[in-house]
Fold Ferredoxin thioredoxin reductase alpha chain domain-containing protein.
Amino acid sequence: MRWCLLLVALGRALVVRHALRAAVEAPAAYEIGTRVRVVADNIVFYHYSKAKDGFNPEGKAGVVKRIATVARDGGATPISANRPICVQLDDPKIHCHFEPEELALETGSESS
């Protein structure tokens, strides 16, 4: 019985460790200062006060301002943000958090 509980606890610890490691690894393509465009069409932000019915950022461009993989105080403590890439959109000028799959790199010809 004890061995079963120990194996279950060890298995859970390994799964959690693997999930945390995958969550805190920064996407290689997105670095601070990179221009990106939102490609996801199923996102609605309700924290933008000028859009009472919500704001859909699909097609909007912006700059990556932060990748949330470690705490803001600069410590080594990893965090696992649900949407780790913080982007400041050009119009309207608001900060929004995205997953890597919801963004695409913007080429020089597309930027406005």
About this structure: The first strand starts at residue 35 and ends at 38. Strands lie at 35-38, 61-67, 85-89, 95-98, 103-105. DSSP finds one helix and five strands in the chain. The two ends are 64 Å apart (CA to CA).
